[in-house]
Amino acid sequence: MVGVTGEGRRTVVGVTSGEGWVTMVGVTSGEGWVTMVGGNSKGCKMVVGSTSGEGWVTMVGLTSGEGCKMVVGSTSGEGLDNPNLSNIFLYVLPPNMADLYITRNPKVHCLVTNLPSDSGFQLFWIKEKPGLLNPDFLDLQEQFNGTYTATSSLTISTQDWEAGERFTCMVKHEDLLVPLNKSISRRSGKVSPPHVFVLSPNPDEMTQTKVTLTCLVYGFQPENVEVQWLKNQENVPKENYVTTPPLKDGPKESTFFVYSKMVVSKSSWLSGDTYTCMVVHEGLPMRFTQRQAQKVPALDLAAGFCSEDVSSSKELDGLWATVSVFVVLFLLSVCYSATVTLFKVKWLFSTVLHLKQVPGSAHRHALKEPV
User: Fold this and answer.
1) Residue pLDDT, tens place only, 152-163
2) Three-state DSSP class for 266?
3) CA distances (Å), 68 to each of 17, 39, 42, 47, 172, in order?
4) 89-184 adopts what CATH topology?
5) φ and ψ of 289, to 5 deg
6) Do 89-184 and 195-305 have matching folds?
7) Is the keyword Plastid assigned to this protein (predicted)?
8) What DSSP state is assigned to residue 138?
């Protein structure tokens, strides 16, 4: 049934046999939605009102039968693009960088939260190019507050992601008037590779039983980056280190930085175990780079002096013997030189005194005589 009034309002009403309201819409010319009334097969009725140009202002769900739920909320600034009456949230997450470029088994992830029930819930994956999709099994779990959370992952190819393929997650639920959907693809724009530095433990930490290794990654864009630690070229579990989320290098900078910190035992560090920071980013020539933590030379020297190795002890004894002989010979040389110099000075001094005591020609004669 369609009717039009003199003011330009149009009304559309649809009714099923005894099942309640299906759709009722009122529209004015250029002023947006005025009223919207509808219901589902359980006889539930919903009323929506809005003002012109401000989007949905009030959303109220009215119960009129068993199984109907009250939904109250409001939004602003979204216009008529989001007529849903629920607070269901949908997120799509990009693939992990290590999965994308190291194992080459990347996945995009869809997360749905705040589902009021699991009844009538459906999740679909869509991509632009034709081809088969292979999503993982849907994981639907009830939370402590009575709502449900759904997660789904879709395996993709590295080639599709780098080519800019768009992947869309679409959700249907009995509390949604229209399906929710959100898409994700590789961001276009400038790409800058990261600079990577690994900082060894501070010398002050060497008095403790544990020491800290730090990996600084900065100057990269886009912000998607993966940092992993290796011990003796084996992956360290993620729960053993902490990495900050990407942060801007500065208020006016377009690049990002992250810190990653790992605490290890001092005995492991001094025993020769190697620790490496691996960074994965699309701006790197090989898509990843590694930096190994270097021991401070002073620490190695101290460790060497503390060693109980017998051969090292013998070498030190031989070194001290050589040094002792050198010192003794040096002192003897100094004493000998001082003695010779003393005798020469004494002889010269006595000669001068003797010459002063000889008068006239004898004096001249004495000077002509050879010494």
Assistant:
1) 999 999 999 999
2) helix
3) 19, 10, 7, 14, 18
4) Immunoglobulin-like (2.60.40)
5) -145, 160
6) yes
7) no
8) P
Q: Which of 38-42, 69-73, 282-286 has the lowest mean pLDDT?
A: 69-73
CA separation (Å) from 18 to 42, 201, 236? 10, 76, 63
Residue 231 is classified by DSSP as E
Write out pLDDT tens, residues 163-192: 999 999 999 999 899 999 999 999 888 999
| Cα-based distances in Å from 223 to 109, 165, 189, 217, 220 | 18, 19, 12, 11, 7
Q: Are strands 107-115 and 256-265 parallel, antiparallel or unpaired?
A: unpaired
* CB 14 within 8 Å of CB 39: no
pLDDT at 216 over 90: yes
Integer Cα distance of 78 and 72 in angstroms: 17
Domain 195-305 homologous superfamily, CATH: Immunoglobulins (2.60.40.10)
**How far apart are the C-alpha atoms of 75 and 58, rounded to whole Å?**
7
Contact at 8 Å (CB) between 176 and 221? no
Predicted local confidence at residue 307, as pLDDT = 44
Q: Above 70 in pLDDT, residue 103? A: yes
- Give the closest residue to 123 by CA, choosing from 151, 84, 81: 151
Residue 368 is encoded by which pair of tokens?
A: 């002509």
Amino acid code (one letter) for 325: V
Question: Domain residue spans in the chain?
Answer: 2-73, 89-184, 195-305, 319-368
